[in-house]
Hints:
Layout: H1 5-8, E1 12-18, H2 34-37, H3 42-56, H4 60-74, H5 81-88, H6 97-109, E2 113-124, H7 125-128, E3 139-147, E4 153-158, H8 165-174, E5 201-205, H9 211-219, E6 223-228, H10 233-244, E7 250-253, H11 261-284
Parallel strand pairs: 1-2, 1-5, 2-3, 5-6, 6-7
Antiparallel strand pairs: 3-4
Helix pairs in contact: 3-4, 6-11
Amino acid sequence: MFKFDAIKNEMKTVAIIYDFDGTLAPGNMQEYDFIPAVGKRSEEFWQESTQMAEDQDGDTILAYLYHMIKEANNRDVSLRREAFRESGSKVRLFDGVKEWFGRINAYAEERGLKIEHYINSSGIKEMIEGTPIAHEFKKIYACSFFYNVDGVAFWPSVVVNYTTKTQFLFKINKGIESVSDNIEINRYIPEDKRRIPFGRMIYIGDGTTDIPCMRLVKQMGGYSIAVYNSGSQRKIDDIRKLVDDGRVDFVAPADYRPGSGVDTVVRKIVDRIAINLSLEELKHK
C-alpha cells in the first residue's frame, strides 16, 4: 500500500460512472416487477415499444416510456413514484455490488483520493432510487417522469438515450448537477478549473447505449470498462466487438467481488491516477 505526500493533504475527486441495466444488475429493471404487472412477457413488451418507434420513426427510449404509461393505465397498475421505487426494490444486483462501494472508497481514500459514484442510465430513475444501493450515488442521471397533483406519472420528464448520455459526463466534469440547467453547462470553464477532469473518470457500461460515453471518456484521457453477464453469449460477442473497435480500455465479467476482474482493474486505475497526481505535484514544485 502507498500514499503520496504530494496529495495527502487535499483529497482529489475521482468519478466512477455506471450504466445500470446489465452493468450493476442483470437484465432490464422493468422486467423484474413492472412488465409482469401489466400482463406482458418481456419480449412482447420490448417488441411492441420498439415497433412503435420504428413505425413512427421515433426515439426508442421515448417509445418505451410512453408504452409503460399506456400499459399501466390499461391494467390499472400504479404510476406513483412510490410504486416505481417498490419495483426497484425487487431488482437483483450482480455479485458483490452491495459491498463494492465501501470497499473501493476505502481503497481510494488510502491513496489520497475521494471517489464519487454516478449513475448514467436509460432506465428509470425512480426505480433505481428504490434499490438498496441508491444512497451510494452522488447523482442518478436516468429517465424520469413528470407527476400530476395526485403524484401520478403522466409524461416523460428526462429521456436518456445513447447520445444524450454524453451530456451528463460534461455536467460531472464541470460540477453541474442540475438536469434542467442549460446555461452553466455551456459556459466556458478552463480545463484546469473543472471539478473532475476526464482523466479522473472511470466509465463502466455494458451495452450499445454506452458506446459514445465509453469512447468519449477514453479519448479524453479517462478509462472505460465494458462489463458483461458471463451467462449471455450475445453480450460476450457484443463486448468483443467493442474491444476490436477500440472503444474500451478493459473488459471483465459483471462481478464486483474482491479479486474479480472489475475490482482488480479499478484498483489499478486508482493507483495510476494517484501516481499521475503525485507526479504533477512534483512537476509544479
